[in-house]
């Protein structure tokens, strides 16, 4: 049964194929192409990671973050400030800097649109993604929260946001109509007297309204927990459900830019969920977040999914039940 939890004043801990064969040559059209040629599949997922080269953006298969690169540096070093990923329904981006936050692109178009967003490098942050465009818009204000599923560590009662590390590296692993994924390596993360390496694989498939994260840490001492969550700057109610072997937590309401209705959810394997809670607006280093605590094992992946449903992109999401059905 769904559970309902209101705002927390303090940190709470509780998240037969038919094969046709022709004996002769295939018929052709006037151009010489075979009439039976299968057209290339339309891309239903896309990754965009482009770095500035003069006034142009050059898409990169691998990038190591410049050690002195800071967030919101103008002109932008990376298009959309870091890697972005999408399917036909929704898009996301991650800030490839000390913030490591995740943001949501609500889409009006089912086309792959990320390659053309934020291409005015000289404008930097003045490119206002928070205004409605033909393709859609950036629907979320993140601040110092965990935004749309970014991560932190909890050790005891202390929280450590994923921030600067000795080296941060991006690598595209796969991109195509059936799914796309990339890997972020964070090497040399100094946390509470220990040095950790973190691998964060993010993937997206067609037909969903979200993405999947798989986080693997090495160097753990055994008392660490992974935190991920949902920004709650404009909402004061968290819903929770147990769906068999999946734990679900979500928010729903007028919490997007321009007061549009937006649902956001995190789901995880119930066996890895240690509890959930809220971080207050004045908390540091992570604020204004509903979070879930997930079990970590040294060298083993911890996986969760994030779902986003924006009403202007899909009017069905005007009903909470439609968003809940889309959570995966």
Can you walk me through this structure?
There is one protein chain. This protein is an all-beta fold and 328 residues long. The chain has one domain (3-15, 43-326): Beta-galactosidase, Chain A, domain 5, CATH 2.70.98. The chain contains 1 helix and 22 strands. Strands 1-17-18-19-22-15-14-13-12-5 form a 10-stranded antiparallel beta sheet, covered by helices on one side. A hairpin with a 2-residue loop joins strand 6 and strand 7. It is globular. The two termini are 17 Å apart. The model is unreliable at 5-36 (pLDDT under 50).
Task: Walk me through the topology.
Blueprint: E1 3-6, E2 45-48, E3 50-53, E4 56-59, E5 62-64, E6 84-87, E7 90-94, E8 102-107, E9 136-138, E10 148-155, E11 158-161, E12 167-174, E13 180-191, E14 194-204, E15 210-218, E16 224-231, E17 237-243, E18 246-253, E19 262-269, E20 273-279, E21 289-295, E22 302-310, H1 320-326
How would you spell out the order of helices and strands?
A: EEEEEEEEEEEEEEEEEEEEEEH
Number of helices: 1
Write the CATH fold name: Beta-galactosidase, Chain A, domain 5
Question: Which blocks of ≥5 consecutive residues have pLDDT under 50?
Answer: 5-36
**Which second-level CATH architecture applies?**
Distorted Sandwich
- Strand composition percent: 35-45%
Mean pLDDT value: 86
Structural class assignment:
mainly beta
Whole-number tally of structural domains: 1
| Text of the CATH class | Mainly Beta
* Shape annotation: globular
The biggest beta sheet, please?
10 strands, antiparallel
Distance between the termini: 17 Å
Q: What percent of the residues sit in helical stretches (DSSP H or I)?
A: under 10%
How many E-type strands? Answer: 22
Q: List the strand order in the largest sheet.
A: 1-17-18-19-22-15-14-13-12-5
Report the radius of gyration as a whole number of Å: 21 Å
Signal peptide: 1-21
Region (Disordered): 26-47
Biased composition (Polar residues): 28-47
InterPro entries: DUF4861 (IPR032342)
């Amino acid at each position: 049964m769904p559970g309902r939890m209101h705002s927390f004043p303090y940190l709470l801990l509780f998240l037969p194929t038919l094969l046709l064969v022709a004996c002769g040559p295939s018929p052709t059209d006037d151009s010489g192409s075979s009439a039976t040629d299968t057209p290339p599949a339309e891309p239903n997922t896309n990754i965009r990671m482009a770095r500035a080269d003069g006034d142009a953006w050059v898409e990169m298969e691998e990038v190591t973050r410049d050690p002195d690169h800071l967030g919101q540096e103008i002109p932008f070093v990376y298009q959309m400030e870091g890697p972005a990923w999408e399917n036909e329904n929704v898009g996301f981006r991650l800030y490839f800097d000390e913030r490591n936050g995740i943001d949501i692109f609500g889409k009006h178009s089912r086309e792959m649109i990320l390659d053309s967003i934020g291409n005015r490098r000289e404008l930097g942050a003045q490119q206002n993604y928070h205004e409605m465009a033909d393709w859609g818009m950036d629907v979320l204000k993140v601040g110092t929260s965990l935004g749309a599923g970014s991560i932190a560590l909890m050790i005891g009662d202390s929280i450590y946001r994923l921030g600067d590390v000795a080296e941060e590296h991006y690598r595209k692993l796969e991109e195509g109509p059936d799914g796309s994924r990339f890997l972020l390596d964070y090497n040399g993360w100094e946390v509470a007297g220990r040095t950790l390496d973190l691998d964060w694989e993010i993937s997206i498939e067609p037909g969903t309204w979200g993405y999947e994260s798989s986080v693997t840490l090495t160097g753990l001492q055994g008392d660490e927990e992974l935190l991920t969550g949902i920004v709650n700057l404009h909402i004061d109610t968290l819903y929770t459900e147990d769906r068999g072997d999946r734990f679900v937590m979500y928010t729903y309401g007028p919490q997007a830019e321009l007061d549009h209705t937006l649902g956001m959810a995190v789901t995880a394997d119930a066996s890895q969920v240690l509890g959930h809670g809220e971080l207050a607006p004045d908390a540091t280093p992570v604020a204004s977040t509903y979070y879930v605590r997930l079990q970590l094992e040294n060298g083993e992946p911890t996986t969760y999914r994030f779902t986003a449903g924006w009403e202007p992109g899909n009017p069905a999401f005007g009903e909470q039940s439609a968003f809940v059905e889309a959570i995966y």
